[in-house]
Amino acid sequence: MQLNPEDLVVSRVPSADVESPYRPAGDRFVEEDQQVLFSSDASQLGQWLLQGQTPPCFEMAGPRRRTFADPRELTCGIVTCGGLCPGVNNVIRALVLALTYGYGVGRVLGFRYGYAGLSSKSPREPMVLTPEVVDTIHQQGGTVLSSSRGPQDAKDMVDTLLSRGVGALFTIGGDGTLRGTSALAEEIARRNLAIPVVGIPKTIDNDIEWVDRSFGFVTAVEEAKRAISAAHVEARGALNGVGLVKLMGRQSGFIAAHATLSSSDVNFCLVPEVRFALEGDGGLLRVLERRLERRHHAVIAVAEGAGQELMKATLAQDASGNARLGDVGSMLHSALGKWFSSQGMDVTIKYIDPSYMVRSLPANSVDSEFCLLLGQHAVHAAMAGRTNMMIGFWNQHFTHVPIPVAVRQRKQIDPDGELWQRVLDATGQPAKLAD
Amino acid sequence: MQLNPEDLVVSRVPSADVESPYRPAGDRFVEEDQQVLFSSDASQLGQWLLQGQTPPCFEMAGPRRRTFADPRELTCGIVTCGGLCPGVNNVIRALVLALTYGYGVGRVLGFRYGYAGLSSKSPREPMVLTPEVVDTIHQQGGTVLSSSRGPQDAKDMVDTLLSRGVGALFTIGGDGTLRGTSALAEEIARRNLAIPVVGIPKTIDNDIEWVDRSFGFVTAVEEAKRAISAAHVEARGALNGVGLVKLMGRQSGFIAAHATLSSSDVNFCLVPEVRFALEGDGGLLRVLERRLERRHHAVIAVAEGAGQELMKATLAQDASGNARLGDVGSMLHSALGKWFSSQGMDVTIKYIDPSYMVRSLPANSVDSEFCLLLGQHAVHAAMAGRTNMMIGFWNQHFTHVPIPVAVRQRKQIDPDGELWQRVLDATGQPAKLAD
Amino acid sequence: MQLNPEDLVVSRVPSADVESPYRPAGDRFVEEDQQVLFSSDASQLGQWLLQGQTPPCFEMAGPRRRTFADPRELTCGIVTCGGLCPGVNNVIRALVLALTYGYGVGRVLGFRYGYAGLSSKSPREPMVLTPEVVDTIHQQGGTVLSSSRGPQDAKDMVDTLLSRGVGALFTIGGDGTLRGTSALAEEIARRNLAIPVVGIPKTIDNDIEWVDRSFGFVTAVEEAKRAISAAHVEARGALNGVGLVKLMGRQSGFIAAHATLSSSDVNFCLVPEVRFALEGDGGLLRVLERRLERRHHAVIAVAEGAGQELMKATLAQDASGNARLGDVGSMLHSALGKWFSSQGMDVTIKYIDPSYMVRSLPANSVDSEFCLLLGQHAVHAAMAGRTNMMIGFWNQHFTHVPIPVAVRQRKQIDPDGELWQRVLDATGQPAKLAD
Amino acid sequence: MQLNPEDLVVSRVPSADVESPYRPAGDRFVEEDQQVLFSSDASQLGQWLLQGQTPPCFEMAGPRRRTFADPRELTCGIVTCGGLCPGVNNVIRALVLALTYGYGVGRVLGFRYGYAGLSSKSPREPMVLTPEVVDTIHQQGGTVLSSSRGPQDAKDMVDTLLSRGVGALFTIGGDGTLRGTSALAEEIARRNLAIPVVGIPKTIDNDIEWVDRSFGFVTAVEEAKRAISAAHVEARGALNGVGLVKLMGRQSGFIAAHATLSSSDVNFCLVPEVRFALEGDGGLLRVLERRLERRHHAVIAVAEGAGQELMKATLAQDASGNARLGDVGSMLHSALGKWFSSQGMDVTIKYIDPSYMVRSLPANSVDSEFCLLLGQHAVHAAMAGRTNMMIGFWNQHFTHVPIPVAVRQRKQIDPDGELWQRVLDATGQPAKLAD
Description:
By secondary structure, the first copy, chain A, is an alpha/beta fold. Chain A is built from 12 helices and 17 strands. The longest helix of chain A has 20 residues, at 217-236. Chains A and D meet through strand 3, helix 1, helix 2, helix 5 and helix 6 of A and strand 3, helix 1, helix 2, helix 5 and helix 6 of D.
């Protein structure tokens, strides 16, 4: 994607310009002009410079010397939206601790059930989040605030913020949530209010752009790998055994790809970004058949959004506005069964859908640390008056990413890129499964 | 079940009565007449004695002083049948090590793909199993010998044993496998051959009688508990969240019951042994509805064989001759959705089917030890010439159980017994979910 | 040990003989005369009967029709003593839930820091334990009540019970704790008070008699096996690598023995019950040397109480009155180093002491269920007015065991018994490591 | 550290300039001039550009169009040196698979026991490593090739390479190993041989420069976090309980720091890079005492190299030439005991040293993938004729790092940097523990 430097300018709320109460050791604040290069590829940089262009940069995250208001007088809000992901409670906890201990914020409200909790028709009062309340929540999966899908009216939500006296809001959610965050920030700007709204990107599919890796993803891949191991064991347990695993990944197959790379048992990795054919000499069925004849067992990992073109289109959407997908796992299960039956080949297919077991886990150690730092940087950003932005991680630095640029497109596997090449090397599958 | 002492007499092959090469420390052999009381309940024992009856006893397992043949001249066979279960490789390994190091058996053959590997149409040659070959197999789930379902002709299999020179056979499998083992032993007896056939009961459902607990069961419950935790996290993650988990258990709900007791998150445990109604004021739907109104979330654990009477009968059978079950998980998922939709109640249902992830794990430590001892005792039994029997575990002792008595009925949860009472106490669910 | 039937009679407090508010499904109470045979070995039973003796039996645990007092008017107390063990929080939780929901007890107090919390000099007020307070405590290792070692004056503790209005007390602890429980019960009897005191035996070493397996033991063995795996990996990572693991087991080597049986990596298992020599041709050093020459690596698992006779006696005791042990791990580490150095053999020794990592874990699923049932049965026992007893598990039944008979001797591995024979078979070590 | 562009030029062996048999999809080779910016901080880049300097860059890793020789005629060697680390077997496996399947290399030799296996006095023949041999080795911790510490004579090792016909060598090891790799490459250059030598940096301490994160580190931190959890449970289990955990980290405290950030239980993190005092009002002892008075429990995580200045210097070295460290864990254990005893404060200290349990684990999923990619890139580098270099990972790209620049200094925590600030925020410990 073409990124223009002006796209990366971060919005700010009107600021009272107060000295920050946060005190880093050695007084190490991040300066207002510190930036992180978008590309660390020297040749790309050279091209920009040769053409007299400013290379695109992200604003660097971190504590600033001045805050937009006196934190000790603020009430802050937190809301968690969309599907579960390992680490949401860690982020909530990190926000509460950084607000309370880092900036002396006196009151933190947790709005329940996603954006529904910010509407005037909220089913339940917000939780008051203190360090005691959040002390051990990170040991459990899910979100103590509960969640919901779908947008709410921005005006209504801003009214709630005002009526609750909320002076800064943190949203934890995916693509749709971030669009809602952006709408909120715009409505706030329209009213000329000084309420920063900062997003922490949550996507178990790892499909939000300009975040090298999203939180919970490593934990999810570890569990996906367990499902693949189970499929492998089942495949080897029978003559011509086929283990078929459906993994998350509606439009981006990162979980399937990385689980394939971290495992060693996958023979076919199918993702939304790379079309495949079932029929024909180069299609999945015949290629699989030849492998079974040779090795007597095989494992297929398929992302839920793969192979949609092989199924009849459905136009329904879920509450978040995501198109409902055809069930590629069941479709493959059935297609394989029919094929081998028609070929008179005795094949045993075991289908595993670990589904919610992947996303409901508590974060492992590397995700726990990542969530801690995302939360801390979100607090620094909001206190510095940044708004309509989310925290990113890029080229070894935490960054500020304007939400409009983050949601402009979805991060996907590049079928001509390095990651997919590694998957091809690891599985030995043909570059094209074409009829 | 009424057990008669004569039912518990263990068959033997014609014996050459050789001194055993196995040497326990302190020369601690088990004597021929050592027995384990069927019941440790003193009042039951008193009744038998008062009535002048001999209380039923199992033959105690363990090394005998004399073997039915010279082990050093034997070739032994191993076969694994039916579905996977944690620990099968541990049993294979224990058999090979006890045969090789304990008795000096020179050659052990592993027949592949279950009883199919013992037929004259076997798809593949048997593996030669040495201590080196089995050295680390227990670290992997599944079975290195692979498996298959369904019976084979006993005469054909005995012919294979003879042509391969197999002098003792060990079978690892469930109900159907044990019936096959019995048929084999009977055909061998008919031909007056001295080939003991000993079964090691394998059932992830823990539904074989006279085995206090079957191998792999503890490992399976641990994984089932993980699925329940995931369901609980999902249930709490939404307003009126319902987590629904389908667990193994075709005719016996032991996995569901024990996972419920070892977890603390299940509100409704549904098993094949206890009928439940969906409709009506005391049926599942309304009872669940009242709980959601009160607590806003709930978890249901359902064994796959539960609620069959609520679905249309299907007459199909799988290759092992098991009746195909209606899919109670999908049925409940759909019934709950319809009900709450009809009630205008906004409910989020998350359905988890951990399926093969439960049974493909390697054995945990307690199951590993149990498999080791089952394997060793099976070797002692075969070397002592016992046949048409399986190894049991009862009242703190390993035992010899004649297969005909073991397969006479299936072990099930007693709806009036202690285990089910504990489940009712743990879940708080009504004793009857009746319309 | 010789057990006389009269030793197994369980004490009772003066009873007001009230109808129990606990309602099992199907009205399945345990009758007052139900008993569990001590031995399920038929030949032992036959001997008793032939000699006209009553075979020793344990009182069977379970809910009785009548309680010693009206539970709804009771305050109950819980105290946890001695070292940590997986599952203590599960037992606390089970007690609170069974008292509250099963019997309608209105108030449960958790005394902190062991018996110190029952003394008049208690460092802190007791916790009020409600179902909400204990809701998720079982997910964490350790004890929410904290613990301490050592006895307190029984009179002082009874005074505390009276001043707090405690009508029944549950103690969770080991050998020393149970002696304290017995002293408490005797002081209560002396004052003719109706305060039952019931113990739940806690011993990570599994060394309390008449409990087939103590809670937390399976979890501990699983972690011990991890340490052994680490030692095995280290041993194979170097030329003549030796992995040395010290495991818990002051006077009983059950953890070392079962971890050896559940692993497959131990070549030498050393326990307190079986003496071994270092020096001499049959001593550990030379036998190990010969193994290294043959296989180039070895793993030793040693219980902390093994080999004490090889070290200088120390007379010190810890606060619980346990003799301080010599550090056999360091002694072996050093002795091995010196020996191979004197032999000019290049050996790499890696010493692992997993120590507190073993005992601080949360209980796994099988221990969780076991803790639940122990807690429930302790509540049933106390409500039935039993006192000076602990809950046991024997021949597939929960039992009531008088504490005096439980603490008369320590459970140990029988060097001539089956368990040790299995260890010898599994390791291949000589029956005697003698000089 | 000041990096000059010329320091980052990668050495090459004399090349026969052959067309590469490796075929990436879409023909995506890395071009010879592709480079990765050392710094993604835009202001640093600006300074270089303003001063007319070329910003330092690493050569980008990846497959090149031309190889230095025909891979199909090559024999390649692999050697693993120094201490164990999760993932070594994954790297070995990745090398073998990439060489065999990616480039058609016909023969891969695994030299055993580190550099000792490359000397003329090697204790054992090298293993022939085929895809079958390495098929499942990644499921086990440690190294199938075994290891050893310490250097060997470079001339002797080159002689071995020649006599074995080795045309490219891969070394897996730490600081010392890389120096040996450099010496080897220089000796090869001296003889004008075309044998590339490529290192894969292995350091559980994560202390090698220009590798953003070393392999196995995430797995190690996960296990370190387990030890910290155990310490936390123990600390809370007693009045004034102190859990003390010693973690790896001889000169760099990254494991301690990241385990602290991923856990939430550490109150004092002590690392080699930051001095601390025991005595005095701001020293550890009094600060800890004040915490115990306030909270009654505390956890200390100490890296093994911390606090060396508080112990008497020792001059001994281990076989790798590392200075032997004083045992800071035992020192603290003893100092704390003495202090609180002198203060008359009843404190319970539990000391945990998870030691080898941290480094002997198999790699988790994220480390598994990382090892796979390191191995593949090492193969691409060697086939492209690069030598005297190691594979790095920097700013989201795999890189080629000349070994001389990699070993020039050790990577350490910057006490004024962001990581340490996060640790201070997470623990709440004073920025200086000074007397």
